[in-house]
Each structure stands twice: as C-alpha cells, then as structure tokens.
Amino acid sequence: MPEENSTMKLTVNGVEHEIEVSPQAKLADLLRHDLGLTGTKIGCGDGQCGSCVVLVDGRPVRSCIFPVRKTAGKQVLTVEGRGASWGDPDELHPLQKAFIDHGTVQCGFCTPGLLMAAAGLWNKVVASSQTEVTDSEIKRALARNACRCTGYSSVLRAVRSAIHEHWTGEPLAPIEIETLDPLRVIGHSFPRPDAADKVTGSAKFTDDYAFPGMLYGATLRAAHPHARILSIDASGALRLPGVHDVLTHRDVPGRNRHGLVFHDWPVLCDDKVRYLGDAVAVLAADSPEIAAEAVKLIDVGYEPLPVVASAEQARQADASIVHEEWETGNLLEHIKVRLGDIEQGFAEADVVVEREYRTPTYDHMFMEPECSSGVPAGYDSDHRKLTVYVGSQIPYADRDQVAAALGLPEQDVRVIGTLIGGGFGGKEDIMGQIHAALLAQATGQPVKILYDRAESLLAHPKRHA
Are 444 and 211 in contact (CB under 8 A)? Predict the structure, then answer.
C-alpha cells in the first residue's frame, strides 16, 4: 500500500508553516511551488549542480533531492530569508554585498545556491572564531556548486572578503583595472544593475513565473532518427483525466516550419522525423506528472528510413535524402572561402601541418533548464496580446517565428525576454516558444513547458554537430 500524505510543521525563514506533504515531496518543490520562494533554483534536478542549496538547521542541503519530511520541526533558510539583513537590498548580508562588489554575480541562476553554500561555511567559521579562511576551505565548501559564468575566482575572493570584513570591519578591495583618464565608465568595474535582485532571490527566470489556471505542457519526440510518419493517434492521451488538449501538425494554423536562416525545422512533424529530438505532438495537462504520462499514450505509426548519421555519409551518392524538398539533395549550402594565395603561403611557410581533426559533441552547459510559458491574448489586463515568456538570446526573432507559426501578424505577438540563466549560444533557437504559444491559444489558459537537461540536449539538432 502506498504511504499516505501527512501533516507536519517546519519553519522557513523564521515563519512556521503547517503543511500536508506526500512521502515523495522534495524540499525544493515545497519552497518554490507551495511557498513561492523561487529564489531557490532547480538546475539539474539530481542534486549535482548545487543551484538548489538551502540551509536546514544551518547545514547546506540540496533541496531538489532532500525529502520534505526530513525538515519536520527544523529551521529552513533560503536566500530570501536570514533575518532582517538577508534579502533586503538596502541591508545586505556581507556575503551578498561581497558577491556584488567582487563581480561574482553574472547570469545569477547559480548565485542563490553558491550564497547558501557559502553561508554554511560562514556559520562554521564565525562559530569557531576563525578570523581567516583559505581558498582550500572555500573550495571544499563549494565543491558541488557548479557555476558556468564566473570561473570561480571571483567567488573565492568574495567569500574571503566577507569573512575578512566580519572580523576587521573592512572588506578586501576588489581587483582594480587600470584605465586612462578621463574615461569614467569604460575600463572600470561597476555592479550589475540587477545584482541586488539576484543575491536576494527576487530575480525571476522563466520557470519562476506562475499564472492562475496555468497548465503544463509536454512534447512527444521522435521514436526514430529517420522515419516516415504513417499515422498519429492521440485519442488515448485525450481520454486521460487532466489532459486539456493534444496538438499535432494539423493544428498548426500558420507556417509549419521555422528557423533563423532556413525555414526547414518543423514546428510539429508532418511528413517524417529527421532526428530523435523532432517534435511530433504537444499537449497540455493539469500537472507535469499527468502531461508526462499522457505523452506515452500517443500512438505514432512509423516507417523507418535509412539513417544519415554524419555529414560525410550525407554526401555519399547512395545516402538517403533527409530533406526531400531541397533541390540540392542533402547539401544545404556550399560556402567557398578564398583569401590570399594558398600555394604561395604553403611555399613560404616554415612549417606545414596537415591533419584531420575531429571533435566530440559538446553541450553549451548553461545552468538554467530551458522553459517557455505562453499566455493567451485577452487572458487579463497585462496580456492583451498572445504573450510568450522565455529566457531567449533572440526574443525578436522568436516573436517573428511564433507569429508565422500561429498565422498572426507580428504585432499581435509579444515575447517577454526573462532573465537568462546562461546561454552561450545555446538559447538562440526555438525550443518551447511556439509550442507554448500554440497550447495557450488552443486551451485559452497559460501553459508552461519546462525541459530537463536530457530533452533540451536531444531537441536541439545543432548541439549534435
């Protein structure tokens, strides 16, 4: 027999709560969804990246995997808490201030986790009257907190500075950059305008937004790397209680192709699938759990086709044609680069090295999972237009592609670019923007689509290059 929900008490940021929890409930979900404390971030969801670190009775824990039941009767501290001096932009804790002064705050997604892990070290150092802290001690304390932006040097300086200020009253001086007079801005270090929001947990990334009546989306992706689509039957998913709608290519009212340069990427596949991340159907449901279960109930008939696994294979005479609508077969474009006299350059070179190099697949490794939320036009006074919330590096291009897919004028679509928890070129493509907009328009309710790391990597074909 499954365990039943139980009622328990815990104190979060000095406020006592009595809540009903399930045996499987994790602390991060309680903080974010039940208490609205979205300063605690969920990156990997597996307790590895450290973005979700909070303090339980003064000890750092990874809240995305920490059972809520273990907090019964205990004190939980998040980046929004820590009394009057933690979370108030006008009265920052020395750690928060040092993170700003030493340039530690960049994209900001991992900042709350780093701060709370550092706060655990702070508690230990202050309690033991230790007046200095070494880089080795800081590294041990933050060893499981990943940060993609800073390179960690500024993190070490910030923690040392905060502890130094606690005992001496003076912080360590930030690194100075020499510049030329009379320049007042260029060549000087300035705090980010949003740094205070990021160190106090009030900065909002896409997944931090919630709307009344919000539904949750999920995507059915291709079961084969290359196959003809023979049929799509969504009746099983539609019968599942809690499912509001299932959309296929037949439900795309506008152009069923998107792309920044060439419009060759299906919004929802119609003729065939071309890689394992291709989207075949999307749906909206009352919860992420129902959405995930419903995706499994969509039945797609496939005729597998020969797989084209590399650029070299694609150029072979007998290779299967991936995009049959291209007049040039598997050749998208041939770009010739000619500069200078190559033969002369070789003849005059002291050393000529000729070798074939191959590189493995790399991910952009941003900390924030990709997320998109669509809000239908007329939903409330703040959303008179169809609106998409997304942490995108190219929101205007997103707007153009959403409008084209939905068959709307561009001025009828609004894309709100939220804070980006790292991008590095990886958030320059359509991921869930069009799907969230389609589902919001179809259901008349806000729809959020959140992807884990594996699906995010799978869905972007350019990340396989």
Answer: no
Q: Residue 390 to residues 255, 364, 408, 452: CA-CA distances in angstroms? A: 21, 17, 19, 15
Among 77, 65, 157, 170, CA closest to 117: 77
Q: How far apart are CA 271 and CA 277, in angstroms?
A: 15
Ramachandran sector of residue 282 (left: φ over 0; alpha: ψ -120 to 50; beta: rest): beta
Q: What does DSSP say about strands 371-375 and 243-247: parallel, antiparallel, or unpaired?
A: unpaired
Q: What is the pLDDT of residue 463?
A: 46
Those residues of the chain that have pLDDT short of 70 are 1-2, 82-90, 461-465
The reported pLDDT for the residue numbered 90 is 66
Bridge partners, residue 221, by sequence: 279
Nearest Cα to Cα of residue 249 among 217, 273, 277, 225: 273
- 12 sits in which H/E element: strand 6-12
CA distances from 203 to 180, 200, 242, 417 (A): 35, 8, 32, 13
Torsion sign across C-alpha atoms 307, 311, 313, 314 = positive
Neighbours of 227 (CB within 10 A): 20
What's residue 2's pLDDT?
60
pLDDT for res 76: 95
Specify burial of residue 75 (Cβ count, 10 A radius: 0-12, 13-18, 19+): middle
Residue by residue, DSSP assigns 124-135 as HHHHTT-----H
pTM (whole model) above 0.90: yes
Question: Coil, strand, or helix at residue 167?
Answer: helix
For residues 123 and 126, what is the distance between their CA atoms, to the nearest angstrom? 5
- The CA distance from 129 to 288, in Å, is 47
CB 304 within 8 A of CB 223: no
3-state secondary structure of 98: helix
